[in-house]
Amino acid sequence: QVQLVQSGAEVKKPGASVNVSCKASGYTFTSYYMNWVRQAPGQGLEWMAIINPSSGDTSYARKFQGRLTVTRDTSTGVVYMELSSLRSEDTAVYYCARNGRSASCDNWGLGTPVTVSS
Amino acid sequence: QSALTQPPSASGSLGQSVTISCAGTSSDVGNYKYVSWYQQYPGKAPRLILYEVSQRPSGVPDRFSGSKSGNTASLTVSGLQAEDEADYYCSSYAGSNIRVFGGGTKLTVL
Predict the structure, then answer these.
(1) Of residues A95, A70, A67, A97, the one with CA closest to residue A81
(2) Does A5 contact B at CB distance below 8 Å?
(3) What pLDDT digit, counting tens, does each position of A2-51 carry?
(4) Nearest alpha carbon to residue B73 among B30, B108, B12
(5) Using a CB-CB distance cutoff of 8 angstroms, which residues of chain B are in contact with residue A95?
(6) Each residue of B6-16: pLDDT tens digit?
(7) Which of A14, A94, B39, B59 has its CA 20 to 30 A from that of B45?
């Protein structure tokens, strides 16, 4: 069965960077794009980026361009999300979600809480 | 890349039906049939319940249905059950491999 296992919770200071990983298993890693979605406390879902694990091509939400980098390692089946210049508003749970049929997110990781605080 | 517009809350009695709207623009909802809906319980990851406007993944009850007209998509939950009380989010493809989510709707079952 499809599994997306994310790295553990992070606490960062403003201005720092955070790197969250998502290890995929149970399917062919390079056959499905992967999304990153975040959710601030008490708020809704926010789409951040998508990566084609086969080619490494990425697309980012305009809001995060220049501050967000998504990469992958095809040898290990892991996708990485690095967000830099962190501010308090980046405090959120970050999810990886496999891209399914018709641009949907058909399988989700459990989420990685990231807290930005001085 | 603006968020889709959903009502913050909706409610219905056990056994009744409720419809949640999701308003976008001609650049997203109105231009693609790639609208999906997600159910989320507090403290849990979202779960896909509809894709391509009205298609249900395996295991999703047929009480959940979807439609689209112009720039607005809708999710209807029929025969409301207590376990349907959750947050619901719509999402749409917006071109150039971009997706956008709605702000979410909290569904209360009375």
Answers:
(1) A70
(2) no
(3) 999 999 999 999 999 999 999 999 999 999 999 999 999 999 999 999 99
(4) B30
(5) 45-46
(6) 999 999 999 99
(7) A14
